[in-house]
């Protein structure tokens, strides 16, 4: 498994992992493709294994493809797998503690307030993040939330949500700054995140904080 694929998988872990037929399969109650997709372990792995594994579980077959896996990508395409959600891995180069407004509540556990901005799927997300060491940020009045998964000097920002009524009011900026500052205080000064490439508003936000693209991947989905 390639370096960034392994890192992203570590920080957003599936609830169940099965390795067979040259693939590493993740299952997490259908919450996000990232935790419910196959990762390539053997360059010659057969796409039919992906189809079989997820069909057996009544799930949509999905594979995550990274740079250098072009041959496997072509085989998946030949089996009818469509490319969806090209995603950028963005890294913040600066190791300095960001200026943070301190308006969000940051804790070690996801409480009811953390779940409230987007309750659908929140419990499953909490179970995924519960397999990591994480910080949970909640904006005032239930207007947004976010998370930073900690792994040594590394932090992965994820699960960012802003409710529609609060968008373009600086909620996401405050959550991101407070999360990164809290992670920095825990010893994590290397920050990265994953964002769908076509999400231009989110990319603009992250670029303002100094994030630049380091890698990318896309999903191949059947049906």
TrEMBL record:
Keywords in UniProt for this one?
Acyltransferase, Transferase
- Ranges for domain N-acetyltransferase: 89-223
The record's InterPro entries line, in alphabetical order, gives: Acyl_CoA_acyltransferase (IPR016181), GNAT_dom (IPR000182), Rv0428c-like_C (IPR056935), YpeA/RimI_acetyltransf (IPR050680)
| Xref: Pfam families | Rv0428c_C
Q: Where is this region: Disordered?
A: 94-118
PANTHER family associated with the record: ACETYLTRANSFERASE
Question: Under what name is this protein listed?
Answer: GNAT family N-acetyltransferase
Species this protein is from: Nocardiopsis lambiniae
């Amino acid at each position: 498994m390639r370096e960034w694929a392994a890192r992203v998988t570590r920080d957003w872990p599936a609830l169940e992992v099965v390795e067979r037929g040259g693939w590493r399969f993740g299952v997490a109650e259908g919450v996000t493709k990232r935790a419910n997709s196959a990762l390539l372990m053997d360059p010659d792995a057969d796409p039919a294994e992906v189809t079989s594994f997820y069909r057996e579980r009544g799930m949509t077959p999905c594979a995550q493809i990274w740079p250098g896996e072009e041959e496997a990508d072509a085989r998946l395409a030949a089996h009818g797998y469509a490319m969806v959600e090209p995603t950028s891995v963005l890294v913040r180069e600066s190791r300095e503690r960001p200026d943070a407004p301190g308006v969000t509540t940051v804790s070690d556990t996801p409480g009811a307030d953390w779940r409230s901005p987007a309750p659908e799927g929140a419990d499953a997300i909490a179970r995924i993040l519960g397999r990591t060491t994480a910080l949970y940020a909640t904006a005032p009045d239930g207007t947004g939330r976010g998370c930073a998964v900690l792994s040594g000097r590394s932090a992965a920002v994820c699960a960012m949500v802003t409710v529609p009524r609060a968008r373009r009011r600086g909620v996401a900026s405050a959550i991101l700054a407070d999360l990164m500052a809290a992670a920095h205080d825990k010893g994590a000064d290397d920050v990265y995140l994953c964002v769908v490439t076509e999400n231009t508003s989110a990319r603009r936000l992250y670029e303002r904080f100094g994030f630049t693209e380091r890698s990318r991947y896309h999903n191949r989905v059947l049906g």
